[in-house]
Structures are given as C-alpha cells and as structure tokens.
Write a structure and sequence with these properties.
Layout (H helix, E strand, L loop, with lengths): L1 E3 L9 H14 L10 H11 L4 H12 L9 H13 L2 E3 L2
Antiparallel strand pairs: 1-2
C-alpha cells in the first residue's frame, strides 16, 4: 500500500518507493497505451491516499507536462514519479 508520510518520518529506500509509485501509475493506465490522462493520474493519487486527488493530478500535470498535451507520456513519467515522491507518497510494504 502506498501512503503519504510526514517529513521526518522513516521511509524505505528511495529507489524502492519510486518503483512502487511507477507500478501504481502503470496500473492506473486503464487503456494500456503508456500515456496517463488527468483522470488516470487522479485515480493513482486516490490510490496513494491523497485527500484531493483531482487537485494533485492537476498540479502534477502543471509541473510535468512539458509539451502541454494534457497527458503524461513515457518521456515525462520520471518527472511525475519524482513529483509524487517529493510530496511524500511512498510504499510501506
């Protein structure tokens, strides 16, 4: 399960938690086209436990959607994972 933790809490390795974030984002790619829409990103942040997943998805797109097509492509995925990780979304299991 993925959770949002507070600063100062103990967390698992950065690489492991980023791998888990990547897996959740890919799991939420419902049409399996390797492109994440805002709704798919919203679903992922909902699974992460975000209080406002729609807002978090909107902010993520503003930050990582370099070509402004409204989606996150494979080229932008690492930036999305970094965005989620920096905001404390990690894996506890």
């Amino acid at each position: 399960m993925v959770h949002n933790i507070l600063k100062g809490s103990t967390s698992p390795s950065s690489a492991a938690s980023k791998q888990q974030l990547r897996k959740v984002f890919f799991d939420c790619d419902v049409d399996d086209n390797s492109i994440l829409t805002k709704e798919e990103i919203k679903k992922a942040f909902g699974r992460f436990g975000s209080v406002f997943p729609g807002f978090r998805a909107w902010r993520a797109l503003k930050r990582v959607d370099k070509n402004r097509d409204g989606c996150v492509s494979l080229e932008e995925l690492d930036d999305l994972i970094e965005y989620a990780h920096k905001r404390g979304y990690i894996n506890f299991s």
